[in-house]
Amino acid sequence: MSMELITGGCACGAVRYRAKGPIGFHILCQCRFCQRFSGSVHSALLGVPKAGLVIEGPAKGYSYDNGLGGIRLHVFCSICGSGIHGGNPDEDFVTLIASSLDDPSLFVPTEVINRDEAVPWHRKAARLILHEMK
Ligand SMILES: [Zn+2]
Ligand SMILES: [Zn+2]
Q: pTM for the whole thing?
């Protein structure tokens, strides 16, 4: 895994971060909390060491009990609401939210977790008609 510098930020540009690899995992989480805070059917998360993460700008966070094994943290831009990272306060890594990456190609999902909480139609999403832009 790469030790390269990972950079990203929110949609409005007020929050920026840099993190150091290695990237420990790439997951799609389908739990209800990820659905709610992502505004989608899952979140896309990559794990990086907490010690190497530096955030600049008006980030805010809150903790919640996801009912799936502990307290989780969600950090977002207080201006535009874009998610920046999550994590468990007791763990030594954080989960960057992949949509915040400057280089989206760094995220290569390998696992899906909390599939039992997936919205019903998502299991059929692979069979949807795909419209490609020319
Ligand atoms: Zn923002
Ligand atoms: Zn989740």
A: 0.88
